[in-house]
Records
---
Amino acid sequence: MSTLSVRVRNPFLLRGSLEVVLEVARMDLANAEIEEIRGLLAAIPNSVRPTELQVPLAAARAALLAVRYFNQSRTRHWLREEMVNALLDLERALERHLRDAAGGG
């Protein structure tokens, strides 16, 4: 299984943000995508120190889809700016890595 290496500035903040994303986007995701995101959440360390996450391709695709659904929601506007920024950083990194993995980079 292929994985992507993603640099995360604040894993604790990202985890909280992704939990909100999962709750908001849950109805638009397939069960397999929900499970991939849950697995990703479990792999994120409970730390505020920057880290490198190893994200399986399926989890990366599911997280990217969920973030895109979340970005269309009203809840996005209620989230703290630092949480939105953590999601934007993740979205950009996943897009870049997935594009490179597909040979489009």
---
Amino acid sequence: MRKMDEMEHHIALRSMRIAYSFTVVFLFVWMTIEYINTSEFRLPFILLISQNMVLLSSQLIMQNRMGRNEE
């Protein structure tokens, strides 16, 4: 497998960002509808929160590792 050039890398990152944004909006709308209908937070809430927890924790871990490598 060959390495991506800068343009391919930029396109891949932008596509992931758009897909992530779509997922967050979709889960938020689904969560809101579920809450209006049932007055409970169910699966969409769990998915939305866990997805963002994974994103934030992975960013913190990677930033921490990069910080250690620079020293």
---
Amino acid sequence: MMLVVLVNRQTQKRQVIHDLESIALVDHDHEVHRPQYYIPNARQQLTAIAFILTRTHDDAVQYATQDWELRHD
């Protein structure tokens, strides 16, 4: 399981996400790629239109990459 920080690109508001199982990127053709078990690098995040975060005990949630960034800190 991972711990990541979700950062709003405009406001820089940070949200810590605990118990993250995987991250799946959604490309411009709206195809969902295989889940990853690490944080995608900045280039991967910007070439995708969204990412889907799957947590241990919650439903998966999708975030637009133009609005949000994932970080380790």
---
Amino acid sequence: MVHGGHVAVVDTPGALQEALSEWLREADVVVIPTRTTSRDIEPLMRMRKAVFKHSRAKIVYVMNGWNRFKASRDFMEWFEGLAGDQTVVTLPQSEAFVLPTARPSRRR
């Protein structure tokens, strides 16, 4: 625990604004959440580029919705090579939320 420290949490969309560079210069840690799909590569890479350009902060990547399917596994294999020694955390996709709710049919 750090006494007298300051914590600021800034939540941004994948489409970055120029003012974000000021926050990045002050950051000690930047958390970059993303999903493990090809559609998420562009905003992920844009955010990485901004962090590398404006900050020396430690990066923690949070992979939301990781699942057991090949596309997710391929994404993680590609990304872990890119992330190197940076922290990568996976949040598994809960299949219970994805599958439609089954309801018993009512026969008359």
